[in-house]
Write a structure and sequence with these properties.
The chain is mainly alpha-helical. The chain has two domains: about 200 residues, Cation efflux protein transmembrane domain (Alpha-lytic protease prodomain-like); about 80 residues, Alpha-Beta Plaits (2-Layer Sandwich). It has eight helices and three strands, in the order H-H-H-H-H-H-H-E-E-H-E. The chain has a three-stranded mixed sheet with strand order 1-2-3. It is elongated, with a radius of gyration of 26 Å. The two termini are about 20 Å apart. The relative contact order is 0.14. The N terminus is likely disordered.
């Protein structure tokens, strides 16, 4: 006995336009900074361009995942491609982690062997990159909590913004003092900011892929609510997982009074169970097996 839903619409799907806009901005910033690196000879700008390119790839992954996630369910993929969003979020987390480690290591290397840069041109192209990234941040700010994918995209643009600010700070210090090690010092700080956030995003994505119960859902409270309903004797084989952002699902075996199977009360009880979950725990998709006492004795031990 269950409750059907359309799984084609995901939390990220309604923000495809935002992702497409941010992707276009990121590609533009990449092109501008590559030109700037060639013109000024700035390794910092070239590294930042690589950073932007990697983040643009992450946004492209997120956008592609939303297109896949919007495809309808089929006989083989009963939830459609909704899980593609989480796979993309995991890839984004790996990319961000790699970028953070690279920025940190490269910053250490440049502390030992600083590179000569032309601070004026570096600042000019850094400002262009900063303005573009700020537009991207503004576009994604309100949607950043809609899903892991949107969070990943927002973090990528935010790290680009931090890098642009770092480029400008380094350019100003070098121009005013000639202290070329300002560039790698800022790079190390940026690396220290990127890595913890990337690890957090990756941990959340992996948790969903491993079908861990959502952190905001208390299984003990669910048991208490369900067993508190009239005619419910017990609950077992309770599973709660997240298919994709905004789509938790629950299944359980519910032991009920034998009379429910004779007096026609089972449908009403099923409605009560699903209303309880949707109202108290925001779980709209639930599947219950109603069973009489003693039925669990006939089930495989792993289902008790």
């Amino acid at each position: 006995m269950g409750h059907g839903h359309d799984h084609g619409h995901t939390a990220t799907g309604s923000h495809r336009g935002l992702l497409a806009g941010v992707l276009a901005i990121s590609v533009g910033i990449f092109a501008v900074e590559v030109v700037g690196a060639i013109v000024t000879g700035s390794l910092a700008l070239l590294a930042d361009a690589g950073h932007v390119l990697a983040d643009a790839g992450g946004v492209a992954l997120a956008l592609g995942a939303t297109l896949l996630a919007a495809r309808p369910a089929s006989g083989r993929r009963t939830f459609g491609w909704a899980r593609a969003e989480i796979l993309a979020a995991a890839v984004n987390g790996l990319i961000l982690s790699g970028i953070g480690v690279y920025v940190f290591i490269e910053g250490i290397r440049r502390l030992v062997d600083p590179a000569d840069v032309e601070p004026g041109g570096m600042a000019l192209f850094g400002v262009i990159g900063l303005v573009g990234n700020l537009i991207g941040v503004a576009l994604l700010y309100r949607a950043r909590s809609a899903s892991l994918n949107m969070k990943g995209a927002f973090l990528e643009v935010a790290t680009d913004t931090a890098t642009s600010v770092g480029v400008l700070i380094a350019a100003a210090v070098i121009a005013w003092t000639g202290f070329t090690r300002a560039d790698p010092m800022v790079s190390v700080l940026i690396g220290l900011i990127i890595v913890p956030r990337a690890v957090k995003l990756l941990r959340e994505a992996v948790s969903i892929l491993l079908e861990t119960a959502p952190a905001d859902i208390d299984l003990d409270q669910i048991r208490a609510h369900i067993t508190g309903l009239d005619h419910v004797k017990d609950i077992h084989d309770l599973h709660v997982l997240t298919v994709t952002s905004g789509l938790p699902v629950l299944s359980a075996h519910v032991v009920v009074d034998d009379s429910c199977f004779h007096d026609g009360h089972a449908p009403q009880l099923l409605d009560s169970l699903q209303t309880c979950l949707a109202g108290h725990f925001d779980v709209e998709h639930s599947t219950f097996q109603l069973e009489p006492a003693g039925h669990a004795d006939h089930e495989h031990p792993t289902h008790r």
